[in-house]
């Protein structure tokens, strides 16, 4: 890299996107993201209640709604994480809002196409659309498959644009990969300290890893999307099902996994603000943890193919090892660091800080469920049972979503200058965490007894457990509705101006 | 030789080599296409085009290339998509029968590589490399299942 | 309810989850109140982190090594000595031999004709004992020994369309 570029990469006065613009972009993503998530929570509860026999869905409707629930939830959660990271990084370096708007628009168009395909066409091949399923023995018209694939293509395009923008931003701001990865901080710390440089803040690592792994997922998604689209136009085209399955999970698993890592940045930024003068700074350990995350998130997807014995044997071992190793950065660095940051810090409990902290608990508990599932010896019992559904709902519903809600309430609290009362916090906590835990426990219990996932009607003891679990789901939804009302209440308060410190 | 000159030379050589590959395939005429190895040939052609673009942008890099230029991003993304469309095996029998069209499609691959890398780099410094890797990953990945079964 | 291996794993999960929740809640309850300097907390915290990291690393290595013998993947020579039975999955049925031998190592050569399916085998007590994916164009060899005689149930373990939940078969082990 030439010297000119290096110097320009670190301008004397840092140019950033204006806070007003950045906030607008953030809400452009998080607003529709949360609406999608909310709608899909309701749809999910409907599915769970149908499994419990509380009402009846025809199998076709059940599987179509299940497809919508999975796809739209991924899109919704991804939008929330994208908006959040965009906003946080815009405070570090300039980002062009037009690029972000184009990316968001493409993703929303994609979501609309997916919705049309499912709600009008009845498409129901699950979000995994595992080849040859979208084309063979379908109960929906062929056009629905085409529209669904076009929708996914728009999502992939939007996602890729976002990843390229964020990667470009990070690389320019911190002087290339070397700076963005804090390479010198790790390998020559004393020289780094003497040079007077500062490493990227923790949230920049979340941006970097999301963008790099996101592009890997994007390329797999675009390849499998093109292949399936061509197969839709030309039914004689042969595709290798195992190849498609690998690509589908590089895309789907990685994207789903990143929806957890993206909102994590909110914890880095917002959690210290509730403490008394504590900071979350970038250490060599934190940098190495994110390097590990970058690698292991990219190769952990192999655990989705444990039960495909035709896979090369080596990757099954790599899959288990990588899945174990992926747990280290959260366990040793992020959650440990978060707990240490909070411990005896004079912490202020508000709705925002409560969500951020409990989100870490949910992430850990879901991680424990995941670690048991990625052990091949146990996966024989758990693969595609409700155990899988249990663990990912734990860290999406009681982890990633709480990080997002934590951030939203943090913003609202900061803007309005008020915090929710203890009674409101307790009520929402009981609903969201209590109802959530109850709902999740049903999946774990049914999964442990071998009840398969994605069944419109479940074998015993699935139905009874689903019935009980649905009650937890209803409580959770009530909690989320209270959350929404409280958010609106805070948002309607006039903006509070902080008195500048003397 | 200056850095700029060396980079221009690299650009020229990659471009010429990629085009030479096309001419060679044209001279060989019609032959049965093995889809897998042919996907890999496309990956090489794409790489040739991309390498030429990257060397050129590196030779002409100006400080003003630092801020984001969103207008270049769409072609940088559509380049890979176009490259993939040219790799659709459905067209292969037709290509097999029409060597000129086949050679033209290979020029298309070189162009897709060039556009992807050039526009990426114009959008923002270092992004040309990223979009190139993005397209290459797809082109190489295609060899293992796109129109190919075990 | 009998304590099967899966329910044992479930209990392990509950215990680990309770420990994790308990620890983090205890830390949370010590969050409020007079603040201590960050540096003071970090000093002992980082010492604890080293112990935690080592403990986790050792546990991960041990777990990995212990799990290796249970990997279900077999080489061609390992499969050669067992009797092979073909199993085919299709929308929405299984073609599977009606009778299979007890206490004998066998191999089920599992494939599919249309879309991806899964073969989940449940013993007479309703416990899942083995599973493998059924993929068109591929044959997945599942080696197993049925320890219990009686009627076994097969359920589909990969979403395959509108009657996925109805796709089942039974066979007798004797």
Helical amount among residues of chain B, as a percent range? over 70%
Q: Treating each run of at least 4 consecutive H or I residues as one helix, how many helices of chain B?
A: 6
Q: Quick one: overall form of chain A?
A: globular
Main sheet characteristics of chain B: none
User: What percent of residues of chain B are in strands?
Assistant: under 5%
- Percent helix of chain A: over 70%
**Number of discrete domains of chain B:** 1
Mind telling me the CATH superfamily name of the domain at 1-262 in chain A? Cytochrome c oxidase-like, subunit I domain
Rg of chain A (C-alpha, Å): 22 Å
Overall shape of chain B: it is: globular
State the distance separating the first and last CA atoms of chain A.
Answer: 45 Å
The H-and-E topology of chain A, N to C, reads as: HHHHHHHHHHHHHHHHHHH
If you average the pLDDT of chain B, what whole number results? 87
Examine the coordinates and then state which fold CATH places here, giving the name of the CATH topology of the domain at 1-262 in chain A.
Answer: Cytochrome C Oxidase, Chain A
Our Rg estimate of chain B from Cα atoms comes to: 16 Å
Walk me through what this model shows.
The complex is a heterotrimer of chains A (502), B (150) and C (174). By secondary structure, chain A is mainly α. Chain A is built from 19 helices and no strands. Chain A has a domain at 1-262: Cytochrome c oxidase-like, subunit I domain (Cytochrome C Oxidase, Chain A, Up-down Bundle). The longest helix of chain A is centred in the first third of the chain and has 33 residues, at 19-51. Residues 1-13 of chain A have low confidence and may be disordered. Chain B is built from six helices and no strands. In chain C, the strands form two sheets. A five-stranded mixed β-sheet of chain C has the order 3-9-8-5-6, with no helix packed on it. Chain C has a four-stranded mixed β-sheet with strand order 2-1-4-7, with no helix packed on it. At the A-C interface, α3, α10, α13, α14 and α15 of A face α1, α2, β5, β6 and β7 of C.
């Amino acid at each position: 890299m030439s010297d000119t570029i290096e110097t320009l990469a670190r301008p004397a006065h840092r140019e950033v996107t204006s806070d007003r613009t950045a906030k607008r972009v953030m809400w452009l993503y998080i607003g529709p993201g949360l609406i999608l998530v909310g709608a899909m929570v309701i749809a999910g509860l409907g599915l769970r209640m149908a499994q419990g026999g509380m009402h009846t869905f025809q199998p076709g409707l059940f599987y179509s709604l299940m497809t919508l629930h999975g796809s739209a939830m991924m899109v919704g959660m991804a939008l929330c994480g994208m908006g959040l990271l965009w906003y946080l990084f815009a405070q570090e370096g300039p980002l062009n809002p037009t690029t972000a708007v184009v990316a968001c628009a493409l993703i929303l168009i994609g979501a609309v196409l997916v919705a049309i395909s499912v709600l009008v066409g009845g498409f129901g091949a699950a979000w995994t659309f595992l080849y040859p399923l979208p084309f063979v023995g379908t109960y929906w018209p062929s056009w629905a498959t085409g529209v669904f694939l076009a929708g996914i293509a728009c999502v992939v395009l939007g996602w890729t644009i976002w990843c390229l923008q964020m990667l470009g931003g990070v690389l320019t701001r911190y002087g290339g990969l070397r700076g963005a990865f804090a390479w010198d901080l790790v390998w020559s710390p004393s020289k780094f300290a003497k040079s007077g440089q500062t490493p990227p803040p923790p949230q920049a690592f979340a941006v970097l890893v999301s963008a790099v792994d996101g592009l890997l997922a994007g390329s797999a998604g675009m390849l499998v999307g093109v292949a399936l689209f061509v197969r839709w136009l030309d039914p004689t085209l042969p595709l290798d099902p195992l190849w498609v399955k690998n690509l589908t999970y590089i895309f789907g698993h990685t994207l789903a996994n990143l929806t957890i890592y993206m909102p994590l940045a909110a914890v880095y930024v917002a959690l210290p603000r509730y403490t008394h003068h504590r900071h979350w700074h970038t250490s060599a350990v934190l940098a190495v943890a994110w390097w590990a995350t970058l690698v292991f998130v990219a190769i952990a997807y192999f655990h989705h193919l444990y039960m495909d014995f035709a896979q090369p044997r080596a990757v099954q071992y790599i899959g288990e090892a990588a899945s174990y190793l992926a747990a280290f950065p959260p366990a040793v660095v992020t959650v440990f660091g978060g707990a240490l940051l909070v411990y005896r810090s004079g912490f202020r409990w508000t709705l925002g800080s409560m969500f951020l902290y409990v989100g870490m608990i949910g992430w850990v508990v879901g991680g424990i469920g995941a670690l048991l599932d990625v052990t091949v010896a146990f996966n024989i019992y758990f693969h595609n049972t409700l155990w899988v559904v249990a663990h990912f709902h734990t860290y999406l519903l009681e982890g990633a979503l709480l990080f997002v809600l934590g951030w939203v309430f943090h913003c609202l609290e900061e803007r309005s200058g008020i915090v929710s009362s203890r009674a409101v916090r307790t009520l929402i906590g009981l609903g969201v965490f209590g109802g959530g835990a109850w709902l999740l426990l049903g999946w774990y219990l049914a999964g442990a007894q071998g009840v398969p996932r994605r069944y419109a009607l479940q074998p015993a003891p699935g139905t009874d457990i689903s019935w009980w679990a649905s009650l937890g789901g209803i409580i959770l939804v009530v909690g989320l509705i209270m959350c929404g009302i409280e958010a609106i209440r805070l948002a309607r308060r006039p903006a509070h101006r902080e008195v500048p410190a003397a | 030789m200056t850095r700029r000159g060396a980079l221009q030379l690299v650009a020229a050589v990659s471009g010429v080599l990629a085009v030479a590959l096309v001419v060679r395939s044209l001279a060989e005429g019609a032959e049965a296409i093995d889809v897998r190895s042919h996907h890999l040939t496309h990956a090489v052609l794409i790489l040739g085009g991309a390498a030429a673009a990257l060397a050129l942008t590196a030779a002409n890099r100006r400080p003003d290339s630092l801020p984001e230029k969103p207008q270049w991003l769409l072609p940088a993304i559509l380049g890979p998509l176009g490259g993939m469309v040219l790799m659709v095996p459905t067209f292969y029998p037709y290509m097999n029968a029409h060597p000129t069209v086949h050679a033209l499609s290979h020029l298309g691959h070189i162009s897709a590589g060039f556009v992807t890398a050039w526009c990426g780099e114009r959008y923002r410094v270092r992004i040309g490399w990223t979009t190139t890797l993005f397209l290459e990953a797809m082109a190489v990945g295609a060899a293992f299942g796109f129109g190919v079964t075990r | 309810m009998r304590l099967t291996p899966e329910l044992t794993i479930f209990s392990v999960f509950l215990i680990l989850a309770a420990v994790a929740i308990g620890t983090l809640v205890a830390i949370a309850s010590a969050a409020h109140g007079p603040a201590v300097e960050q540096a003071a907390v970090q000093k002992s915290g980082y010492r604890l982190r080293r112990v935690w990291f080592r403990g986790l690393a050792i546990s991960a290595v041990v777990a990995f090594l212990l799990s290796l013998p249970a990997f279900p993947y077999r080489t061609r020579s390992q499969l050669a000595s067992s009797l092979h039975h073909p199993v085919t999955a299709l929308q929405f049925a299984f073609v599977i031999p009606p009778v299979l031998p007890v206490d004998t190592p066998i191999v089920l050569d599992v494939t599919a004709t249309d879309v991806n399916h899964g073969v989940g085998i449940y013993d007479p007590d309703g416990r899942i004992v083995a599973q493998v994916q059924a993929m068109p164009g591929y044959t997945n060899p599942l080696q197993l020994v049925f320890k219990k005689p009686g009627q076994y149930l097969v359920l589909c373990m990969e979403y395959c369309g509108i009657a996925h939940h109805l796709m089942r078969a039974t066979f007798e082990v004797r």
